[in-house]
Design goal:
Elements: H1 5-11, H2 19-24, E1 31-33, H3 44-61, H4 82-87, H5 104-109, H6 124-135, E2 146-148, H7 155-158, H8 182-197, H9 217-229, H10 235-247, H11 249-261, H12 264-277, H13 295-307, H14 312-321, H15 330-339, H16 355-375, H17 394-405, E3 407-408, E4 410-411, E5 417-418, E6 420-422, H18 429-451, E7 471-473, E8 479-481, E9 485-487, E10 498-500, E11 508-514, E12 520-527, E13 538-544, E14 547-553, E15 565-573, E16 579-585, E17 594-595, E18 598-602, H19 623-643, E19 651-653, E20 656-657, E21 664-667, E22 675-679, H20 705-712, H21 720-733, H22 754-766, H23 771-779, H24 782-785, H25 792-797, E23 810-811, H26 814-825, H27 871-875, H28 894-902, H29 904-919, H30 928-940, H31 946-956, H32 963-974, H33 977-980, E24 981-982
């Protein structure tokens, strides 16, 4: 059987694999013979029915793709034996004997999910034959044959891979020379082993590789300053360090490292590194990219965490389960709650109308980001199939999916929202208490007034829901998002009234859910008391057995038929899954949105005369209500006005546990509606010790996020410490010990120094997961102190600097380029160290597509949007916020040099730098060499060469007072390679 491309795209991954997939997976899908088949007992009538009604259909329509003689067996399914039917393919057993409706084969033949054969649906007579055959036990004489079984992931073998082995601290090797630093011992030992492996190529037969000399004082202070703070050192810092370095290099470096680690600039620099990994942005991406108004709190939280040297295992727990952790104070509660915003920072299209698809997309993004960030694993590959290269089965992915599906990350709506929660600090609690008391008073007065009015169900013309045909869900039973206004102002309505959207109405929705008593087709209808003030384009979403449907309702117009109920269409519903109707108050459509009762009527009852409101909706006796109507309206308006003065309570973007937690199904081929068996919630089996279960305890009632956080942050996890230590090494040294920092799997690079990586990981955990101690340890090594100029033998034997025979020369990243320009010009604002920096907050980020960023704060505080990026960041390879970016792209483009030469921003900073220098006490009106020394140190951290001095003197002239001339000098230095590179 063949499947059309159009159909394949529509249904997503199915149980029928494309031939190319089957070929690619051939090594993992052995064809196994069935041993000693059991001979079924068939009577003559059963045999005749199979041979005349079943086998011919299978041969004609199925065998070409699903038999052992097929050129490429699709979906792992063979139908030319009884065993093949019972074992099934990638989607599971093809038939369930005695249960035709549960049999995938019959579902596909009916075109209920898959469409088999794809070219045409088989006749009703054939379908009836297969239904009868399966119901009676699927008698089949075709014993023996072959079935296709997919080889299981070998977890035991997978644990032998280097990154899945337990972290064991190796002994420090003995190394020749004067260095006794532990890191240097590992580096020298690895270099020697490398040379020994290339002994025949070493000139002179020395058997040694020559390392670079120590870097100069100027190079070291600039390197330390940029690595630890992202900013150039001041002239005073350069001179003081040079004097100390001359006397005692080790002490000078240690003192400077300690000073810079305690600087608030450290957290701004290293927080930015982690924000790259956390895919931080202040908008969602997707079509109309929604703003994330509280994302800045997460940015500030990360900066604080690095400045305070928060243990990394605690940071992990806060990122994955901060809302669940115990807190000893309101401040700690808010800190932890803000940390779990990590889970909501991903690029998500919240406008997705298939809400089940959206939910799984969010779960997938959370799993994949967590895997790359903390474990260095590409877990997203397992959404559709076992990992092709790493020992991670699909079951492990859905064990994690059960945890994140038990976590609430979305709020319902036509355009879904994200979860936020109020903080306990940062606002005037007295003002909030006073406002709440007044609001409660108004609420009580309104309720008392309404209580004096006879309920709609007691009045002529206003029936209760149980007086109407079908199944009715009144608005009193709906779940509301946002501030809806209760009213009885206009008839007809069901029960005690209705609700309207009011103005404004951002983020309003009403959700009706009902477990219908019987499976079948229902007409879905909603009550409308139409009026010209209503909206004519109300979006309504119906979730039914076959997916989701979206309709638009005109509430200005009188409904056809009885004039009260608007028909939303006919849909099939199941008795085991709630029917759902969601009504939106869309900002795109002006007018009031009314929500009242929703009705489900079995289609079989439509021929009868249903009870409705039509006969009684016209002339109700309003005398009991007339005296109170105006007072009720007045109080409602007063409460609406009071709502506008509500003190703002700060909120944090977060997640929370669902009210009910449960395990989840494997999605066959990743298709959200093609459900396989449930798997217990749990973790990555290969990264869990054999002696410990990777699953949550049976009957766990919470989501499992806290247990997941503990598992990730455990010293027994073989991945977490290694991955983080490698990230730190990358940012200190310029290259990682593993050069694929987000991929510690089979397709990633192997560690250049595995023993050193394990040693540092073990020491990191022994030191309480302290980032600052780890950075200090690396910076104090002789390896960090090396010059970037390679010795002759090193250049030949270690051309890629894999063995760290010299320092890695590297470019300044985008933030350091911008911040350096601002600092040298004197414009850098170091007072903006927290808070929302978006000038004008809106719903979407599209108005910022070509925005001007006038702020001069550090780059970490510049607003970060997914649909647009500051031009400097884009040109100089800023982090892509749509991805976990442990290592940024490093490109060489003409645009980079052209930007520094022609950008108005750069030219402005050059002018400001000239102004600042001419007004400073370092300017000497008649001392050219001294002036050039100061300018070169400001921009490049070194003295000018003789040729540079000669060229610059020709520009500035003898009087040296020309602002334009000094602007040219600063601009030339900003555009130089030495400005952009760190030695």
């Amino acid at each position: 059987m063949r499947m059309t491309t159009k159909r394949l795209l529509r249904i997503g991954f199915s149980m029928f694999l494309l031939p190319v997939w089957v070929a690619a997976l051939a090594w993992t899908i052995p064809v196994l013979a069935v041993d000693e088949p059991v001979e079924p007992s068939l009577n003559g009538e059963e045999l005749k029915f199979f041979e005349e009604r079943i086998r011919p259909v299978l041969i004609e329509h199925c065998y070409s793709c699903h038999s052992t003689d097929a050129k490429a067996v699709k979906g792992g399914l063979v139908l030319d034996s009884r065993e093949g039917l019972l074992v099934g393919g990638d989607s599971g057993p093809a038939i369930v004997t005695g249960k035709p409706n549960d049999s995938l084969l019959l579902q596909a033949m009916r075109h209920e999910s898959l469409e088999m054969p794809p070219t045409q649906k088989l006749s009703d007579e054939i379908l009836a034959d297969f239904e009868t055959w399966i119901r009676l036990g699927a008698a089949d004489p075709r014993v023996g044959g072959t079935v296709i079984r997919k080889a299981a992931v070998d977890i035991v073998k997978g644990r032998e891979f280097w990154s899945f082995r337990p972290v064991v601290k190796p002994p420090i090797p003995r190394a020749d020379g004067s260095s006794h630093h532990d890191i240097d011992c590992f580096i020298i030992d690895a270099q020697q082993r490398h040379v020994d492996s290339l002994a025949d190529t070493v000139e002179g037969g020395t058997g040694k590789i020559e390392r670079s000399l120590d870097a100069s004082a100027d190079v070291m202070i600039r390197r330390l300053s940029f690595v630890l703070t992202g900013l150039p050192p001041s002239i005073d810092e350069q001179l003081a360090f040079a004097n100390a370095y001359k006397l005692d290099p080790e002490t000078a470096i240690a003192t400077t490292v300690d000073r810079l680690l305690e600087s608030p600039r450290f957290g701004e620099r290293w927080g930015r590194h982690w924000l790259d990994v956390a895919r931080f942005a202040e908008s969602t991406g997707g079509g109309r990219s929604l703003m994330l108004p509280d994302a800045w709190r997460f940015r500030d939280y990360v900066i604080r965490s690095y400045n305070n040297d928060k243990p990394f295992d605690q940071l992990i727990r806060e990122h994955l389960a901060g809302d669940l952790l115990p807190a000893s104070s309101d401040e700690q509660h808010d800190e932890q709650l803000t940390g779990v915003g990590y889970l909501m920072l991903g690029a998500i299209n919240y406008e997705e109308q298939d809400k089940e698809q959206l939910r799984m997309d969010v779960v997938d993004e959370q799993i994949d980001s967590m895997g790359r960030s903390f474990l260095g694993m590409t877990l997203g590959c397992c959404r559709c199939h076992d990992h092709k290269f790493d020992p991670i089965p699909t079951a492990d992915y859905y064990a994690l999916a059960g945890i994140f599906r038990s976590t609430k990350s979305l709020t319902p709506g036509n355009v879904c929202g994200f979860v936020s929660s109020p903080l306990r600090t940062g606002y005037d609690k007295t003002a909030v208490a006073d406002w709440t008391a007044k609001d409660k008073q108004l609420e009580t007065q309104i309720a008392e007034l309404k209580a004096g009015v006879r309920k709609g169900s007691d009045r002529p013309g206003v029936p209760a829901g149980n007086q109407i045909a079908g199944i009715v869900v009144d608005d009193t039973e709906a779940l509301f998002e946002g501030e809806w206004v209760a009213s009885m102002f206009q008839q007809p309505f069901v029960g005690a009234g209705y609700r309207h959207s009011g103005q404004p109405r951002r983020g309003l929705s009403a959700t009706y859910e009902m477990m219908l008593p019987e499976e079948g087709e229902y007409a879905v209808r909603m009550v409308i008391n139409h009026d010209e003030s209503r909206s004519k384009n109300v979006p309504v979403r119906i979730v039914h057995a076959d997916g989701e449907s979206q309709v638009s309702v005109n509430q200005k117009a009188k409904p056809e038929g009885d004039g009260v109920f608007a028909d939303l269409g006919h849909y099939r519903f199941e008795s085991t899954k709630a029917a759902r109707v969601v009504i939106q108050a869309s900002e795109a459509a002006p007018g009031f949105v009314i929500v009242d009762a929703v009705q489900f009527v079995p289609v079989s009852l439509l021929t009868a005369t249903p009870a409705s409101l039509a006969a009684v909706s016209g002339q109700a006796d309003d005398k009991g209500m007339a005296g109170n109507k105006q007072q009720l309206i007045k109080l409602e308006e007063e409460r609406k006005l009071h709502a506008k003065s509500k003190p703002e309570i700060p909120t944090a973007m977060c997640v929370e546990d669902e009210t009910q937690s449960s395990d989840w199904h494997v999605h066959i081929r990743g298709e959200i509606r093609n459900l396989g068996p449930k798997v217990p919630r749990g973790f990555i089996t290969a990264a869990t010790s054999e002696s410990v279960s990777a699953a949550l305890p049976a009957g766990a009632t919470t989501s499992g996020r806290q247990q997941l956080a503990d598992w990730v942050a455990s010293a027994d996890n073989p991945l977490t410490a290694r991955v983080y230590v490698n990230r730190i090494w990358l940012h200190v040294m310029g290259e990682g010990l593993v050069r694929t920092p987000d991929n510690f799997g089979e397709t990633g690079e192997r560690p250049s120094h595995p023993e050193l990586l394990d040693y540092l990981a073990a020491m990191f955990m022994e030191d309480g997961w302290s980032t600052k101690k780890l950075i200090r340890r690396i910076c104090l090594s002789r390896t960090f102190r090396q010059s970037s100029i390679a010795a002759e033998t090193a250049a030949r034997l270690d051309p890629g600097n894999l063995w760290m025979t010299r320092a890695s020369r590297r470019r300044l990243d985008a933030e350091s380029v911008r911040d350096s320009l601002l600092q040298i010009s004197g414009a850098l604002d170091l007072n903006t160290v927290s808070g929302r920096t978006i000038v004008k907050l809106s719903t979407y980020d599209n108005e910022y597509r070509h925005a001007v960023y006038p702020m001069t704060a550090r780059s970490v505080f510049v607003p970060s949007f997914r649909n647009t990026m500051l031009d400097l960041f884009e040109i100089f390879d800023g982090a892509n916020p749509n991805l976990v970016s442990g290592k940024r792209t490093r490109s060489t483009r003409p645009a980079q040099a052209l930007y520094l030469l022609n950008s108005p921003f750069v030219m402005t900073q050059a002018r400001l730098a000239a102004d600042s220098f001419l007004a400073s006490d370092r300017f000497r009106p008649h001392d050219g060499p001294a002036n050039l020394e100061s300018v070169w140190r400001l921009c490049l951290g070194r003295s000018p060469a003789l040729a540079e001095t000669d060229a610059a003197m020709r520009v500035v002239g003898p009087d040296m007072s020309s602002k334009e001339a000094w602007t040219e000098v600063f601009h030339a230095l900003f555009a130089s390679l030495d400005f952009r590179y760190l030695e």
